[in-house]
Amino acid sequence: MHTLKIGLEIHTQLKTARKLFSLSHNNTSNLLTKPNSQVSFFDVSLPGSQPRLNPQAIVCALKCAIGMNCRVNAVSKFDRKHYFYGDQPLGYQITQRYHAIANDGKVLLTKRYDGLAEDRSIGIEQIQLEQDTGRSLYKLDNGTTDIDFNRSNIPLVEMVTRPDFNDIEQVRAFIKKYTKMLQNYDICTGELETGAIRVDVNVNIDQFQRIELKNIPTTSAIVNAIRYEYKRQCQVVDNGGSIDEVETRGWDGKKTYRLRSKEDSIDYRYMPDPELPAIKLDLEDVMPKLKQSLPMSVEDKMERLIKQYGLKLRDVNILMNDPELLEYYLDLYEEVVTKKGLSNPINWLVHDFLGCLTKSEKEFSRDLFPIREFSGFLELIEDGTLTKQNGKLLMMHLMNNKKDQAVPIRELVESFGMKSVGGDGEELREICRKVIRENEAIVRDIVEKKKRGKMNYLVGMCMRESGGRVDAGAVKKELASELEKWRPLE
Amino acid sequence: MDEFGMGNSTLNSHFGPTLNPLYQQNEDIVSEYKQETFWAPKADSDLINRDILHSIPNAKEIDKYDEIRYLKPILKSDYTIDSQMRIVGGSSGGAAASVAADLVDFAIGTDTGGSIRLPACYTSTLGFKPSYGRISRWGLISYAQSLDTVGIISKKLDIIEKVFKMLDVYDYGDPTSLAENKRVRDEDNWFADGRKVRIGLPIEFQLENMGSGIKQRWMQLLEKLRQNKLIELYPVSIPSIKYSLPVYYTLVTSEASSNLSRFDGIRYGFRADKYTDTEPEYTVTRSEGFGEEVKRRITLGTFSLSSYGFDSHFMKATKLRSRLINEFNSVFRDRHELIPEESGNDKGVDFIVCPTSVDKPSIVSEYYNTSPVQSYLNDVMTTPISLAGLPTINIPYGKSEGFQLVGQFGYDYKVLKFAAMVSES
Amino acid sequence: MIWEVPRIVPWSLIIAKRYASTSVIGKQISTPEELREFLSKSSWSTQDLLNLDRTGMKIDKKLMDGLLDLTGLRKSLNDEDQSKLMNSLNDQLQFLDRLHSIDIPKEEEKDLKLTRLVDDASEDGMLDFHKLNSEVDSTKPDFLKGEVEDTWNPISLTKEHDEDYYIVKEGLIKKNKA
């Protein structure tokens, strides 16, 4: 068994109105924009153009540093990373190698909020500001490459973790957590799928060198790539080899493959940028005020849902993924629990309501099932007028037939003949007896041959007979009691 | 401003060598001047998709364009440069020559390590290099951004002052533009109340290999200054001057190597249109497009920035530059606006004075035989001051000779005022 | 030898710092004799920078090829050009190697505040919360820098392009992307 160590390098496009070192429009993920239409003189490195830092990028980077519990540096500087590539207009990227904006952070992954088996602390090495490059599109037919500089000079934050991950689930949880933090603080436009967030992974086993995996587009691909790479490295070592040099590999969906090795590696000749002034921050003033201006952290929001609303992590995650749905739930709870004293509507919302949405191929919106109607519906469930089964059917109906929502719900239930079997239970007894009479063979199996499993068949028959107006639980009970008394007819 | 010519001779520019108007040249080296014309879109708001045209626009469009004509010199295929011709200096040699030849009243150039002062000296004109950051570099092709300074050449000091006043403005677009509150402006009496003007003479500029002609002139000048009742002369020592040449050339080649990385032909400019499997087009473009001197310098710069040279050369040079800045600062009486807590030496001097060049400008034919390193040595008097970003003016004193009047960082107007006083006497 | 402060000039007034490299201001030169004395002493010659003891690192063909690569230049030079370049580089490197011998003591490092003439050292331009926000609010795109959308056509500056795209003719090799 080889020990696994993983580190992440995540590049995030910042949601600023304008770009990093010039004020051309920052139009990150929109691929429908005309190529080379959102570029300033500096973005295409016209001789004589000069960079000027956009202060909004500083604010975003600071928010990210807060989210990662980093130490922000009062003074940070810019460096140039030199290499030639068609999408790099200056022949170098302006980044922060030596004096970045923040260092030494920590993220705690927990059972409680991240669903891990065990808590794990992940160290954050550095958070730095840097430029994005243009986009290159290789044209197969004539072997040339088209270049679009709309993306050039868009602000990025690069976040490097320490190699503190020892399990793939931690990686998955971290990426999710990081993405949620970015969205919560409104720092980033999107997700991995859009390319707004790009993750590179460093994998190494035991004491061997790390292998860098680049350009992996989705979280599940990352998980698969790490799994593959771990296996591959183990195989190398088990066959007597060793991994002594840093190597960069890509992922093709099935396996990792070498992109470049140490011999091909480029000397980036990092040089302090001679033109750009240092960022100087009055930390004592900026940090407390910035923290105060931020919304509640993701974990605090989750804690509130867990504690105050008694929710399980799985449901918390569903709500946290959709702010509108969360609002809706909170309002529903207010109405149903706080005002009417009914039980927590979470399951009805998360299982049944969302289930109906999927089946009806609809997107969530509050108008589909307004709070008032929903709460009226829940009252009927609570007081037994409507069984769970019929409730589901009714909900589906109401969602797809909006005009029936105007009808008082008890009337509707009556008119559909959905009213539960209730009262003294006489009707239920009748139904059970009828079913028993009509299914003598099965009954014999149960009573004489002790085939208890066939009970479910009888329960199902009763439900059908009742038109779903009884609870399965109640049916079982009544059936059991009737079967006790049953004697075969001669 | 010959960023692609580079070097301090202006002999290897794109259109041919620039000659020094002070020296005899019997034969015209140009066979003809070709008139070239282009049409540029007028400066109005409707500028989308309007290109610069090289043939006349059609009748409908012609009103939207300005016609611009210029003369392009065509060199004779076998011209000879007179044996007595000397170099004009560089790299703003063209600027200095046009002023010296009375073609213009003033010219703008850039001074990175002496490229305004040296040609001004060689053409016996006034060449002013302000404090670093006072005149915006927006629009200037960058050579070494931490050193590039826009300067002014003219025969008349009042013209220089006028032009400087107009250009001495904070520009938000230039990240190195000096903040308004750090610009020391024209004070009414720099030299009031009979206070003597103290002039420092760095002993490190007393070079063994100073040309004898220059030495003589220098002595004469100093004797004049010594006799003047308003002036007191002091020897000063600024030890770091001795290695400012290697410091300068390390930094300037490194920065140039970085700044010229953008020239790959893809987005603008010359494009080679050739490539092979092993040589991508940009390498051919750059190898054909850059002159030999440029290629040498940027390759050297790459070395200084590479893992081989970064700590030993580049970082070392950076620290030594800082030390030089401190040393200069400590001899001045005035306060350095960027190091406020540290400065204002009340026993300090108001100005530093030194020759601009070590010797007369080389004879052109001899210059072609000089190695690059040998030619660097000509910059010994100007580079230390460039590294410290101090305001300086070359004041001509004899044919192709001059001296520099240097003030504390930020005290540009003081330098200009004193230059006027000195020129009068 | 040539890095020391010469002892020949009389100092009666010395402004000293604690380090080896000390800048000083000497006694006023008031008489013609004092001036003559000053002018007669020369402290060094630039030719000293050229002494030929090749102690530093030498560039061989392999290193030169590597440097040409990094500089974005062709490596396919003929033999003559190659040796010319290599010699020139070695000469220049020799010249720059001077810097090795100079030591900067640790105590001096913290006084080296300004490595360039940009305002890094002072508290001016330090951003507090209010200033940061007001700068964010006041930044506007500048037409004269091409920052306003739809005001200029970048493609018009190059002769070769593929409709709205710039082109790289030989295609790009993904492995070389940083």
From TrEMBL, chain A:
Main location: mitochondrion
UniProt-listed Pfam families: GatB_N, GatB_Yqey
Localisation per UniProt entry: Mitochondrion
Domain Asn/Gln amidotransferase: 331-483
Alphabetized InterPro entries for the sequence: Asn/Gln-tRNA_amidoTrfase_suB/E, Asn/Gln-tRNA_Trfase_suB/E_cat, Asn/Gln_amidotransferase, Asn/Gln_tRNA_amidoTrase-B-like, GatB, GatB_Yqey_C_2, Gln-tRNA_amidoTrfase_suB_CS, Gln_synth/guanido_kin_cat_dom
Gene3D superfamilies: 1.10.10.410
Keyword Mitochondrion among UniProt keywords: yes
SUPFAM superfamilies: GatB/YqeY motif, Glutamine synthetase/guanido kinase
GO BP term, pick one: glutaminyl-tRNAGln biosynthesis via transamidation
EC number of this enzyme: 6.3.5.-
Signal peptide: none
GO cellular component: glutamyl-tRNA(Gln) amidotransferase complex; mitochondrion
GO molecular function, one term: glutaminyl-tRNA synthase (glutamine-hydrolyzing) activity
Reaction(s) catalysed (UniProt annotation): L-glutamyl-tRNA(Gln) + L-glutamine + ATP + H2O = L-glutaminyl-tRNA(Gln) + L-glutamate + ADP + phosphate + H(+)
Keywords recorded for this protein, A-Z: ATP-binding, Ligase, Mitochondrion, Nucleotide-binding, Protein biosynthesis
Keyword Protein transport among record annotations: no
Assembly and interaction partners: Subunit of the heterotrimeric GatFAB amidotransferase (AdT) complex, composed of A, B and F subunits.
Family of the protein in this entry: Belongs to the GatB/GatE family. GatB subfamily.
Functional note: Allows the formation of correctly charged Gln-tRNA(Gln) through the transamidation of misacylated Glu-tRNA(Gln) in the mitochondria. The reaction takes place in the presence of glutamine and ATP through an activated gamma-phospho-Glu-tRNA(Gln).
Official protein name in the record: Glutamyl-tRNA(Gln) amidotransferase subunit B, mitochondrial
Organism: Brettanomyces naardenensis (Yeast)
Gene expressing this chain: PET112
UniProtKB/TrEMBL annotation, chain B:
Domain of life: Eukaryota
An example Gene Ontology CC term for this record: glutamyl-tRNA(Gln) amidotransferase complex
Domain Amidase stretches: 85-416
GO biological process: glutaminyl-tRNAGln biosynthesis via transamidation; mitochondrial translation
An annotated Gene Ontology molecular function: glutaminyl-tRNA synthase (glutamine-hydrolyzing) activity
Entry's transmembrane regions: none
Family: Belongs to the amidase family.
Protein name, as recorded: DEKNAAC100953
Species assigned in the record: Brettanomyces naardenensis (Yeast)
Organism ancestry: Eukaryota, Fungi, Dikarya, Ascomycota, Saccharomycotina
From TrEMBL, chain C:
Highest taxon of the lineage: Eukaryota
Listed name of the protein: DEKNAAC102465
One matching Pfam family: GatF
Biological classification of the source: Eukaryota, Fungi, Dikarya, Ascomycota, Saccharomycotina
